[in-house]
Amino acid sequence: MDFGAILKTVISLAAVSGALSLVISLAEKLLNNYGTCELDINAGRKKLSVKGGSSLLSTLAGEKIFIPSACGGKATCGLCKVAVTEGAGPLLLTEEPYISQEERDRHIRLSCQVKVKRDMKLLIPEDLFNIREFLCELVEMEDMTYDIKRLRMKLPPGQTIDFKAGQFVQFYTKPYGKVKEEVFRAYSISSKASEKDHVELLIRLVPNGICTTYVHTALKVGDTVRLSGPYGDFYLRGNCEELIMIAGGSGLAPIRSLVYDVIEKGRDDLKMRFFFGANTMRDFYYMEEFARIEKEHPNFSFIPCLAFPKPEDNWKGAEGFVTVALQEQVQNGENREAYLCGSPGMLDACIRILKEKGFTDRTIFFDKFT
Ligand SMILES: Cc1cc2nc3c(=O)[nH]c(=O)nc-3n(C[C@H](O)[C@H](O)[C@H](O)COP(=O)(O)OP(=O)(O)OC[C@H]3O[C@@H](n4cnc5c(N)ncnc54)[C@H](O)[C@@H]3O)c2cc1C
Ligand code: FES
After folding, report:
1. Binning pLDDT at 50, 70 and 90, where does residue 26 land?
2. Do 135 and 141 meet the contact criterion of CB atoms below 8 Å apart?
3. What CATH code is carried by the domain that includes residue 259?
């Protein structure tokens, strides 16, 4: 074949592929144009006309209805459940791991996975309508350890947040560096529930994590931070004589808020034992504060557990993983509730031990930082 023929073939192939991609993109546009869809929420309590084509989670957020979510719509947290009684289509493979048979019967779906394509009927718990969005000012940012930052945010003048100690907020990033889109992630509130005009968070850097890299490298004091909340059912029940609190890393955040809550409610009848696990000395923080609370409040005991003490640490406290101290120091689950927060691995190991000791699903409460 001569050069002219080769050139002709290449040009015609390029033209065909160009035409094909034009047809595909036109078809995509046409097929994905779902027009306006009607959302009927809680049997007519609210009716919304929305543009179809986005996830139910983001469509509702656009209407200021905030469904709990921690993974930003990646189908890895399972928090964004709502009942869709009409218009959702079949359950997707991505949803299956999070939806039990009982939930399937109630038409529960992951709202981040369901796309709004037609009219829908939804059932949303009433308390989710109280979730609000706040445009806060970051007024303080402090390194608590080499990888955990404390953020203190001031709510706009006149606005307050009513949350139960232990609950979390969603934190929205802004585009930065190569990340062109906003993402949102869950962070437990570490400040006191009685302090309603500020929110504090403890955010641990996850290598290559989109939100935590934003917080640790791009965010500056004085910036505006968008939060929504409060969310979650990790809060104090207190129908017992003693709380066993367990945390590792930034899992300390909601436990700190819970400890202050018990103190401020004057529940001197409620004993608290806080097991705080760290691998090395540099992972410990808030040590002086918890030691002070222990001195001032005889119903509170603080048990820091150091997994890998070095001779130069001169460590006098509990040695080994937090599971060792739990095994040795907690006798049984009688008249006790357990509150756990941190990585899924640590929590699973602790929950196994607690169940062996007689704690049950009704007396164990946790937030896994997935
Ligand atoms: C209810 C709830 C409350 C939470 N509260 C807090 C809190 O108070 N403080 C806090 O620091 N975090 C908290 N988290 C975790 C937080 O929501 C994010 O998942 C975490 O900060 C990572 O976000 P990212 O965008 O930086 O990482 P992503 O971009 O989402 O993830 C990047 C990569 O890191 C992996 N990864 C994600 N998280 C972790 C992790 N923790 N350790 C190791 N690898 C990980 C992912 O699988 C992924 O491969 C909470 C999570 C939940 C569900
Ligand atoms: S937002 Fe996490 S599973 Fe839907």
Report:
1. low
2. no
3. 3.40.50.80
Q: Examine the domain organization and report whether 67 and 182 are in the same domain.
A: no
Q: Is the CB of 239 under 6 A from ligand 1?
A: no
pLDDT for 34: 84
Q: Is the pTM of this model over 0.90?
A: no
Please give the number of the atom of ligand 2 that sits closest to the Cα of 78: 3
Give the ligand with the smallest distance to the CA of 67.
2
Spatial separation of the C-alpha atoms in residues 248 and 321, rounded to whole Å: 10
d(CA 271, CA 109): 39
**Any atom of ligand 2 within 6 Å of the Cβ of 78:** yes
Q: What is the CATH number of the domain that holds 201?
A: 2.40.30.10
DSSP letter string over 95-152? TGGG--HHHHHTTEEETTT-B--S-EEEE--GGGGG-EEEEEEEEEEEESSSSEEEEE
Of all atoms in ligand 2, which is nearest to the CA of residue 73?
Answer: 1
DSSP string of 45-100, one letter each residue:
TEEEEEESSSBHHHHHHHTT-----SSSSSSSS---EEEEEES--SPPTTTGGG--
Separation between Cα atoms, residue 101 and residue 103, nearest integer Å: 5
Q: 352 and 263: one domain?
A: yes
In a shared domain, residues 266 and 348:
yes
Based on the fold, state whether residues 344 and 311 are members of the same structural domain: yes
pLDDT tier at 32 (50, 70, 90 boundaries)?
low
Q: Is 225 in the pocket of ligand 2 (CB under 6 A)?
A: no
Domain hosting 103: range is 36-128
My answer on whether 278 and 361 are in the same domain is yes
Quick one: average pLDDT of 193-213?
97
How far apart (Å, rounded) are the C-alpha atoms in residues 91 and 343?
Answer: 29
Is residue 70 in contact with ligand 1, taking CB distance under 6 Å? yes
Instruction: Give the model's confidence band at 60: pLDDT under 50 very low, under 70 low, under 90 confident, else very high.
Output: very high
Number of domains observed in the structure of the chain: 3
Please state the atom number of ligand 1 nearest to the C-alpha of residue 201: 8
